[in-house]
Design goal:
Elements: H1 2-14, H2 19-45, H3 52-73, H4 85-113, H5 121-155, E1 162-167, H6 171-175, H7 177-181, E2 186-193, E3 202-203, E4 206-210, H8 214-224, E5 228-231, H9 234-239, H10 244-250, E6 254-258, E7 264-265, E8 268-269, E9 273-275, H11 291-298, E10 302-306, H12 311-321, E11 327-332, H13 335-348, E12 353-358, H14 364-374, E13 378-381, H15 388-393, H16 395-415, E14 420-424, H17 435-455, E15 464-469, E16 472-474, H18 480-489, E17 494-496, E18 502-503, E19 505-507, H19 508-520, E20 526-530, E21 536-537, H20 538-548, E22 559-561, E23 581-583, E24 589-592, H21 599-614, H22 618-628, H23 654-660
Parallel strand pairs: 1-2, 1-5, 2-4, 5-6, 10-11, 10-13, 11-12, 13-14, 14-15, 15-20, 16-19, 17-22
Antiparallel strand pairs: 3-4, 6-9, 7-8, 18-21, 20-24, 23-24
Helix pairs in contact: 2-3, 2-5, 3-4, 4-5, 8-10, 11-19, 12-19, 14-16, 16-17, 16-21, 17-21, 17-22, 18-20, 21-22
């Protein structure tokens, strides 16, 4: 019975007072203030100063002016528990308006009857009425707020609430106090900062703790039973990712951040807080692009995206939808992901004309149908096989999709007069050590040679080609972060191939913005490379993810090293060295200096490669790839044998069976 009563009280207390009740309360307090003024003057004067008629007029005028003022000022709509100094000023203004109306009304009555003889003293009475009105209205609110706070502190802070420290003492940090005060999940214990003046010991009644090491935070965590640390801005999180965030995760705290102004879900701005993601603390600044230039480039255009249902392709479609494109053609051979993308756009981007098409980039007739029917102005070619170990086992398929498919898409762009084709490549095409990287380099060669041939007038056409290279994309399908997350959720172990393996990373939205930046620039028939910042050790990434999940690496979750996979190398090439790139108008986008091929040579070599791939002649395919891209040196792969100089190693027997395995 007691528990049910408490739940009922909690629901009642948690809700907001009906505005009609607040109106009645304020009305009562205002009129009561006027009545108390009469009584107070009588007490002070020790006699009945006011005649009966004046008292009646005074109260009547107070009633009328109160109704007018409260009704017009809408002060009864202000939520009592969130009353601020600005709200108090609204009450002062409303009170002054009330007294002004009463003064005018009393003057009119006095002039009309000649019987109100208080003269100058009326001003004093009105000022006393103002003070009494504000005292009652504001005072009652203060009492209600304190009573509410007392009740919450006694009854809504059970052991299952997580105690939170707020990072920093900025205005934004203080502004979240009310939100957390009324939370059913968290309660604020205080603020924490790495820099604090000696005089700064509390903010809004909450203690401020200074932290300069993991040990100092650990003492606070133990003494106050802290469970989480909250950052109220992305900038503060970025600034403290190597200090407070590290200390907090090592102390086993959950780390949260409030949603940014540009974080949406299902087309709506997200509010509240979320857990800090690994993308937030990777240690690199996102590359800023020019959205206005992109809008000018894509507005009212028909845009075809191959591989539209993939991680990059789908995000490209989402961002293009915001740039006023005329129509979007989704081209993909994955039925369910394409269906899901269609449903998403029908729900969130109803204003965009979409055309989902199931098809494969290897199907020339299907491609021809799409180009003929929809006449795209711009093509983003994101369709590709990307997983290194899988392509090491299936080189013929890598060639047929990444090379033959790219060739067919590029040829259709020229045939149907597409303005620009943007091909999405990879850092693994730089001095490739695996089949996947080499297949992307061959695709680059064909696309660039075709564009240069058009540029030189050797082939008729108007299409411009741009290739974009970037590193690993955080959170993409099959990438390391979803894999680590799943392993952590399963209790480990987290598997890393090598303790020293490093990779460059960027987020999916950033990667897509860069692709569109290249598409909207005047760059043509070149390969764009991006400043990816510092490479990240995968082992460090695993440790951070384990810590952010509230576990300790090596204790709660083990990290197991499994050895390099076929075709994998320890370090990806630096993508943006000044000695092998040229600058562009964007300070973090450069043009790669690469060997140029004659179009007829690239076409002949690629046709021969595709013929071998169609014959499933694996050895010949890889050997031919190495002849097209001499810098392709296999690593940790059975194809290393193909790199041995001719005559030094014979092929056949066990060797061949290894390659076919």
């Amino acid at each position: 019975m007691t528990e049910r009563l408490n739940k009922t009280l909690n629901r009642a207390i948690s809700g907001y007072l009906d505005t009609r009740i607040v109106f009645a309360m304020d009305f009562f307090m205002s009129v009561m203030a006027s009545i108390l003024v009469l009584a107070l003057v009588d007490v002070i004067s020790d006699s009945s100063v006011f005649p009966y008629r004046f008292r009646l007029i005074w109260v009547s005028v107070s009633i009328i002016s109160t109704i007018l003022v409260i009704g017009t000022s809408k002060t009864y709509r202000l939520i009592i528990r969130y009353t601020t100094l600005k709200d108090v000023m609204s009450f002062v203004l409303a009170g002054l308006t009330k007294e002004g109306i009463m003064g005018v009304a009393l003057f009119i009555f006095g002039t009309a009857t000649g019987k109100l003889v208080f003269g100058d003293r009326i001003v004093g009475f009105l000022l006393l009425d103002l003070a009494m009105t504000l005292f009652l209205i504001v005072g009652v609110r203060i009492i209600m707020i304190e009573a509410y706070n007392l009740y919450v502190s006694k009854n809504r802070l059970p052991a299952n609430l997580t105690k939170v420290l707020i990072a920093g003492t900025s205005a934004k940090s203080v502004s979240v106090l009310d939100r957390f005060f009324n939370s059913g999940h968290y309660c604020v214990t205080g603020f924490v900062t790495t820099v604090m003046e000696n005089s700064q010991r509390s903010v809004s009644g909450y203690p401020v703790f200074r932290v300069d090491s993991k040990e100092s935070l650990s003492k606070i965590v133990r003494s106050e039973s802290i469970g989480a640390l909250l950052f109220t801005t992305q900038d503060e999180l970025e600034e403290e990712k190597d200090r407070l965030v590290t200390y907090a995760t090592e102390c086993g705290l959950k780390v949260f951040v409030t949603y940014g102004l540009n974080e949406y879900k299902d087309g709506k701005l997200r509010t509240g807080v979320r857990e800090v993601r690994i993308e937030d603390v990777l240690g690199r600044d996102e590359i800023v692009t020019d959205p206005e230039a992109m809008k000018m480039q894509f507005k009212d255009k028909a845009v075809l995206v191959t591989g539209a249902a993939g991680s990059i392709g789908s995000e490209l479609c989402r961002q293009l939808a915001g740039f006023g494109v005329g129509s979007l053609i989704f081209y993909d051979n994955a039925e369910t992901p394409l269906h899901n993308l269609r449903l998403e756009f029908e729900d969130k981007f109803k204003y965009v004309a979409i055309h989902p098409v199931i098809g494969d980039v290897r199907m020339e007739n299907r491609l021809d149908y799409v180009f003929r029917k929809f006449r795209p102005d711009i093509v983003f070619h994101a369709a590709a096989y990307k997983h290194v170990p899988l392509m090491e086992d299936n080189p013929c398929e890598a060639v047929l999709v990444n090379d033959y498919g790219t060739m067919k898409v590029a040829d259709k762009c020229v045939e149907y007069g597409v303005e620009k084709m943007v091909m999405i490549s990879t850092d693994k095409a730089v001095n490739p050590t695996n089949v996947m990287g080499c297949s992307k380099r061959i695709a680059e060669i064909y696309v660039q040679s075709l564009g240069l041939a058009i540029e030189k007038g050797e082939i008729e056409g108007r299409t411009k080609f741009v290739t974009t290279r970037f590193g690993n994309v955080l959170g993409s399908n099959g990438s390391v972060i979803p894999r680590f997350k799943q392993q952590i959720e399963n209790g480990g172990p987290v598997t890393v191939t090598h303790p020293d393996i490093c990779r460059f990373f960027m987020t999916i939205p950033e990667a897509c913005r860069l692709v569109m930046e290249a598409a909207s620039s005047d760059i043509s028939n070149r390969i764009c490379v991006f400043d990816m910042g510092r490479p990240v050790k995968i082992a460090d990434l695993a440790k951070k993810m384990i810590l952010l999940s509230g576990y300790k690496p090596g204790e709660d979750i083990e990290i197991v090293y499994t050895g390099l996979r076929p075709g994998e190398k320890l370090y990806e090439e630096v993508l943006c060295k000044s000695e092998d790139t040229d600058p562009t108008s964007h300070d973090r986008v450069r043009i790669a200096r690469v060997r140029e091929y004659k179009y007829e040579d690239a076409l002949a070599l690629l046709k021969e490669l595709c013929t071998l791939a169609n014959q499933s002649d694996i050895i010949s395919v890889v050997r031919h790839m190495k002849s097209m891209v001499p810098e392709f040196i296999s690593k940790n792969s059975v194809y290393e044998q193909l790199d041995v100089p001719s005559g030094k190693k014979k092929w056949g027997g066990v060797q061949n069976r290894l390659i076919y395995k």
